Inverse folding.
């Protein structure tokens, strides 16, 4: 690794940059900490380098009432971590974030902030894409997030398979079946990922592990080529039951939907319920979910986080 003295001096761009970053669902049933899917619901973030030592943050939409407005904001922290990884931090930053991804619902809002911040940082540096490649960006994002599944999908788009954990993350992007779409049932209250991860057992049964290995392999086939296998491919014995106490209504809805033939799972660490389908079933699912959930149909986002320079 380069020492601080030998670190290259970056050329920062003066103009602001805009990044669009998708919501993501992780696990998809059996693929715990591995499978990810990008969804067409986005946060849009604009950032600019400042010459003064200050961090200005403006937030609209989801999380606007509770998120910090200083260097503790996850976008600012992730941007600074990315600049540091590239060799030089700017004096200050101005960030404007318009958030559509709900927070604490298992739809990847923190991964969107982390990946959005990293992609913004490298977009604000001349040649940034070469200095901080996607491979390096994924490793950094996974270190900050603590697991690689959501950040992989937020960075690469489509359907992703991540491995190597938070310390040596890698991922491959696959193209989902063109008819695949998602329906999400979002409850009004959040569950912290940390709490949901704290409910997982330290040791799992060998038969349960073997069950999930088979279903995870099947999931790859079901999402890419054989969506008719989605029911079997989304079965899980490793994490959803263990988290039932933190999200009993979501857990019950998953059971109810599966009993009616819908491939329902808990999205990420929950409590959103995700249904993978090739049909137009959102009205039927909304009726089954009832008033406690906001139900929406989402297409799969083929694009991961990407920047768009702003003129003027
Ligand atoms: N794989 C992670 C978990 C996803 O289930 O804890 C968190 O969004």
């Amino acid at each position: 690794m380069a020492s601080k003295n030998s670190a290259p001096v970056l050329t920062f761009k003066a103009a602001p940059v805009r990044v669009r970053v998708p919501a993501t669902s992780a696990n998809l049933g059996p693929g715990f900490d591995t499978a990810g899917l990008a969804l067409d619901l986005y946060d849009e973030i604009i950032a600019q380098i400042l010459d003064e030592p200050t961090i200005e943050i403006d937030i609209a939409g989801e999380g606007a009432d509770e998120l910090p407005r200083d260097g503790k904001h996850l976008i600012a922290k992730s941007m600074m971590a990315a600049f540091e990884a590239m060799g030089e931090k700017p004096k200050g930053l101005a960030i404007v974030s318009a958030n559509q991804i709900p927070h604490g619902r298992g739809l990847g809002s923190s991964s969107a902030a982390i990946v959005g911040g990293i992609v913004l940082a490298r977009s604000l540096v001349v040649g940034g894409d070469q200095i901080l490649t996607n491979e390096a960006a994924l490793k950094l994002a996974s270190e900050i997030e603590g697991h690689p599944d959501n950040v992989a999908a937020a960075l690469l788009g489509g359907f992703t398979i991540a491995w190597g954990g938070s310390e040596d993350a890698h991922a491959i992007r696959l193209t989902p079946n063109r008819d695949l779409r998602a329906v999400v049932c979002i409850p009004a209250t959040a569950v912290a990922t940390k709490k949901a991860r704290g409910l997982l057992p330290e040791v799992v049964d060998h038969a349960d592990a073997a069950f999930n290995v088979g279903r995870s392999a099947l999931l790859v086939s079901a999402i890419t080529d054989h969506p008719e296998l989605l029911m079997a491919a989304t079965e899980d014995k490793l994490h959803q039951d263990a988290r039932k106490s933190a999200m009993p209504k979501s857990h019950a809805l998953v059971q109810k939907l599966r009993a009616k033939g819908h491939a329902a799972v808990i999205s990420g660490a929950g409590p959103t319920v995700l249904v993978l389908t090739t049909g137009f079933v959102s009205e039927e699912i909304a009726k089954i979910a009832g008033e406690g959930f906001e139900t929406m149909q989402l297409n799969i986002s083929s694009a991961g986080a990407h920047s768009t320079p702003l003129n003027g």
